[in-house]
Automatic annotation (TrEMBL):
<feature type="modified residue" description="N6-(pyridoxal phosphate)lysine">
    <location>
        <position position="683"/>
    </location>
</feature>
<feature type="compositionally biased region" description="Basic residues">
    <location>
        <begin position="1"/>
        <end position="13"/>
    </location>
</feature>
<keyword id="KW-0021">Allosteric enzyme</keyword>
<dbReference type="InterPro" id="IPR000811">
    <property type="entry name" value="Glyco_trans_35"/>
</dbReference>
<keyword id="KW-0663">Pyridoxal phosphate</keyword>
<dbReference type="GO" id="GO:0005980">
    <property type="term" value="P:glycogen catabolic process"/>
</dbReference>
<comment type="function">
    <text>Allosteric enzyme that catalyzes the rate-limiting step in glycogen catabolism, the phosphorolytic cleavage of glycogen to produce glucose-1-phosphate, and plays a central role in maintaining cellular and organismal glucose homeostasis.</text>
</comment>
<dbReference type="GO" id="GO:0008184">
    <property type="term" value="F:glycogen phosphorylase activity"/>
</dbReference>
<dbReference type="GO" id="GO:0005737">
    <property type="term" value="C:cytoplasm"/>
</dbReference>
<feature type="region of interest" description="Disordered">
    <location>
        <begin position="1"/>
        <end position="26"/>
    </location>
</feature>
<dbReference type="Pfam" id="PF00343">
    <property type="entry name" value="Phosphorylase"/>
</dbReference>
<comment type="function">
    <text>Phosphorylase is an important allosteric enzyme in carbohydrate metabolism. Enzymes from different sources differ in their regulatory mechanisms and in their natural substrates. However, all known phosphorylases share catalytic and structural properties.</text>
</comment>
<dbReference type="InterPro" id="IPR035090">
    <property type="entry name" value="Pyridoxal_P_attach_site"/>
</dbReference>
<keyword id="KW-0328">Glycosyltransferase</keyword>
<keyword id="KW-0808">Transferase</keyword>
<protein>
    <recommendedName>
        <fullName>Alpha-1,4 glucan phosphorylase</fullName>
        <ecNumber>2.4.1.1</ecNumber>
    </recommendedName>
</protein>
<dbReference type="InterPro" id="IPR011833">
    <property type="entry name" value="Glycg_phsphrylas"/>
</dbReference>
Length: 833
């Protein structure tokens, strides 16, 4: 279904694509700073259309980005242009790339060159970096992981293309109105994106709805033909992803939705000016907003349209590329490895089958062989609500041909069970792709599992739980399919860029090898008790905390003491991540300080950040509680100097880059067995924060690497959680056994933090007393114990800094470079240079 754009459409896109090349070429002077300075001035004048005197900060950013983009293109053109034997195609609904300027400068080795070039022009690099909008094309860990993986693949010279959606508005901009979350559109594209190239030649038609007909092509051979009722165009926009030291450049291809006809001219001329563009509005809605609310039927349909839109465009694109390079689509699995990042692109299973069957006339057997040897699936969650299912009625209406293919896949799958003597109805119901327990729904996780060559979890615990819980019966049918690939983070972004001071210390201590080989960080162990090094380390941390204190004061008006322990929990607001447990412990600590004001309390600043989904009422109420507790605590003179509470609004990648290097304590306190991996835990530990956490996700592996004495573990493990949940009165029993917890819950429920609305937080406290799905009450006392152990540890600075340095030194295994090598060797079968 490749679509050839109209000449007018092509001319419009060609003009956009060429505008960045309109500056006249300049000969190199041999002086890197002078060359870059002149390049920036050229872009400012001939592309941005400004003089230095009239340029705004955003203009300087655009000019600098365009100048650096030229150097990325040069690096790409200078690289090996041979067709790789195999490419990786990474399909993800989210790519939380954040700001790209620092990545580009660092990986090209041009940070100081750019700083000097801008300074010659009277501009500070920090100002230019701050003018770049965050590309919030993701919700949290899933999207940030995809961004880390793309950077690592480029750094390892693994040929790869990432595929996603070019959302006009990424994750919403969060503000706090008297502690209540308010959402506004994130307008990151309001002044364009200087990093991207529009690719009008890569435009594909994506169909929806319609009907399916049949025709006989030969005796006994029937072909089905889908006639969509609606067609939307997917237009490619490419963002280059430069690897470390500029040795390799990959592409992030993001799809923008456009209407086939921008306006119904006859309708417009007839006077219906709004109706004439309604089709365009419907089409463009697909790439308008990341994660539109699915609380309505229309919202659910838009979500499914988004998922199919980007998956179909990506598959059409990669098949076109393969056929152009190799000729025969039957060899696709030999030269392409497709990774489905969670269930969002799981529709790739029937879509790839459809394309192979109908566009390339393969037999069912050949198409299924290619599909199941090309696709791979990463599972990111065990939570039932996060394992996508779609109503059969919606699928049949929106994607009728795909539903036919899914039915056939399922029929053959269940027939195979019968051949092996598995006729039990209960067994067949658990392995079926169609869930019929509460209305008929397509299980997208089952579909992805069945269509993939390999299925991977993202931490050792998560993978074990996948085998024993959500995919237990499917795993029994194919015991070799599930493998583990623990997540990782790119050290270039989360150490070199986010914490240049610590990076300099590491380079001075163990040499520049640490920039290329994360394993070299192990050399810092020898300095953990070196008095001079520890003193410099503590001074570095103090400077980062002072910088964060300025941000907190600027954004919230709250003054915090950099000498206090900075206790940080920044992540998506969700009940299983248990920000509420942290808030309740804060209330209990507040009560304890009030009861014994003359006790020598360890000064602590509790810092929260994160966004709640717009329709997630409980999560938004947790934010409100945190803000109301902050107001009461911060205004109480009896706890002054001992406890402060801050909720930083509009959490983002760039804000995380400021918070993480300043954190002393990293809160990773999800209910054991519910966090697949986490990557924030890795970023904090890499930067020297000590972790307080449960035995959940990658916390287990972090403990193994940093040593149990350098992490604070509390609470039930996953087996303990399951056992305790079987007890009908566990919440009531836990509250009765903890007067401290009971008092904190009573204070919250009484309206102490909401006197104008005394019952405001009763939904939270009542839920804990009667249901407590995430076992906050059970883990509370051990969490309190761990926090007081942390208080005591903070009073011994030398021992604390020793632990912090050892955390950094022992985190090398959590590099996403290691993750990508494992994927390449064991899942994708791609050679790593």
């Amino acid at each position: 279904m490749s679509h050839k754009p109209s000449s007018g459409h092509r001319r419009r896109q060609d003009a956009k694509a060429k505008e960045s090349w309109s500056a006249p070429a300049r000969a190199s002077t041999g002086d890197a700073v002078a060359d870059l300075r002149e390049a920036i001035l050229g872009k400012l004048a001939f592309v941005v259309g400004k003089t230095p005197a009239s340029a705004r900060e955003r203009d300087w950013f655009a000019a600098t980005a365009l100048a650096l983009r030229d150097r990325i293109v040069e690096a790409c053109m200078a690289g090996d242009q041979a067709i790789p034997n195999k490419r990786v195609y990474y399909l993800s609904l989210e790519f939380l790339i954040g700001r790209l300027l620092s990545d580009a400068m660092n990986n090209l080795g041009l940070v100081e060159t750019t700083r000097a070039a801008l300074r010659d022009l009277g501009v500070e690099l920090g100002t230019v970096e701050g003018a770049e909008p965050d590309a919030a094309l993701g919700n949290g860990g899933l999207g940030r992981l995809a961004a880390c993986f793309m950077e690592s693949m480029a750094s390892l010279s693994i040929p790869a293309i990432g595929y996603g959606i070019r959302y006009d508005h990424g994750l919403f901009r969060q503000s706090l109105d008297d502690g209540w979350q308010r959402e506004a559109p994130e307008t990151w594209l309001s002044e364009g994106n200087p990093w991207e190239f529009v690719r009008p030649e890569a435009t594909y038609a994506i169909g929806f709805g319609g009907s399916v007909t049949m025709s006989a092509v030969s005796e006994g051979v029937i072909r089905r033909h889908w006639q969509p009722a609606e067609t939307v165009l997917a237009v490619a926009h490419d963002v280059p992803v430069v690897g470390w030291r500029g040795r390799h450049v990959n592409t992030l291809r993001l799809w923008k939705a456009e209407a086939e006809a921008p306006i119904e001219l006859a309708q417009f001329n007839g006077g219906d000016h709004v109706g004439a563009v309604s089709g365009r509005a419907r089409a463009e809605a697909i790439s308008r907003v990341l994660y539109p609310s699915d609380s309505s039927t229309a919202g659910q349909e838009l979500r499914l349209r988004q998922e199919y839109f980007f998956t179909s465009a990506s598959l059409q694109d990669l098949i076109r590329r393969h056929v152009a390079e190799r000729g025969d689509v039957r060899s696709l699995h030999d030269h392409a490895a497709i990774q489905l990042n969670d269930t969002h692109p799981a529709i790739a299973v029937p879509e790839l089958m459809r394309l192979l069957l109908e566009e390339h006339q393969l037999t069912w057997e050949d198409a299924w062989h290619v599909t199941t040897n090309t696709l791979n699936y990463t599972n990111h969650t065990l939570l039932p609500e996060a394992l996508e299912t779609w109503p059969v009625e919606l699928m049949e209406r929106l994607l009728p041909r795909h539903m036919q293919i899914i039915y056939l896949i399922n029929w053959m799958h269940l027939e195979e069970q019968g051949k092996h003597g598995r006729h039990d109805a209960a067994h067949l119901a658990t392995v079926s792709l169609i869930d019929e327990s509460h209305g008929r729904r397509v299980r997208m996780g089952h579909l992805a599992f069945h269509g993939a060559r390999r299925v991977n979890g993202v931490s050792a615990l998560h993978t074990d739980l996948m085998r024993s819980t959500v995919f237990k019966d499917l795993h029994a049918l194919d015991p070799d399919k599930i493998v583990n690939k623990t997540n990782g983070i790119t050290f270039r972004r989360w150490l070199h860029n986010a914490n240049p001071e610590l990076t300099r210390l590491a380079v001075e201590a163990v040499g520049e090898r640490v920039l290329d080989e994360p394993e070299a960080l192990r050399g810092l162990e020898a300095f953990a008790e070196d008095t001079a090094f520890v003193k410099r380390y503590a001074a570095m941390r103090r400077a980062r905390k002072e910088a964060l204190a300025e941000i907190v004061a600027d954004r919230t008006g709250i003054d915090i003491d950099p000498s206090a322990l900075f206790d940080v929990q920044i992540k998506r607001i969700h009940e299983y991540k248990r920000q509420l447990l942290n808030v309740i412990e804060t209330v209990a600590l507040y009560q304890a300080i009030k009861a014994e004001p003359h006790k020598d309390w360890t000064p602590r600043v509790k810092i929260f950040g994160g966004k709640a989904a717009p329709s997630y009422a409980q999560a938004k109420l947790i934010i409100k509680l945190a803000c109301d507790v902050a107001k009461a605590v911060n205004d109480d003179p009896e706890v002054a100097g001992r406890l402060k509470v801050v909720f930083l609004p509009n959490y983002s990648v760039s804000l995380a880059e400021a918070i993480i290097p300043a954190a002393d304590l990293s809160e990773q306190i999800s209910t054991a067995g519910m966090e697949a991996s986490g990557t924030g835990n890795m970023k904090f530990a890499l930067n020297g924060a000590l972790t307080v956490g449960t035995l959940d996700g990658a916390n287990i592996e972090i403990r193994e690497h940093v040593g149990p004495e350098n992490i604070f573990i509390f609470g039930l493990d996953a087996a303990g959680v399951q056992a305790r949940m079987a007890e009908p009165s566990f919440a009531r029993d836990a509250i009765l056994a903890s007067p401290r917890l009971a008092a904190a819950l009573d204070m919250i429920a009484s309206g102490r933090f909401s006197p104008e609305e005394p019952n405001r937080f009763r939904p939270l406290t009542d839920d804990l007393r009667h249901r407590d799905q995430y076992l906050l009450t059970v883990d509370f006392e051990d969490y309190w114990r761990a926090q007081r152990e942390i208080d005591a540890a903070w009073t011994h600075p030398a021992a604390w800094w020793r632990r912090a340095i050892l955390n950094t030194a022992r985190m090398a295994w959590f590099s996403s470079d290691r993750s990508m090598r494992e994927y390449a060797q064991e899942i994708w079968r791609v050679r790593v240079a």
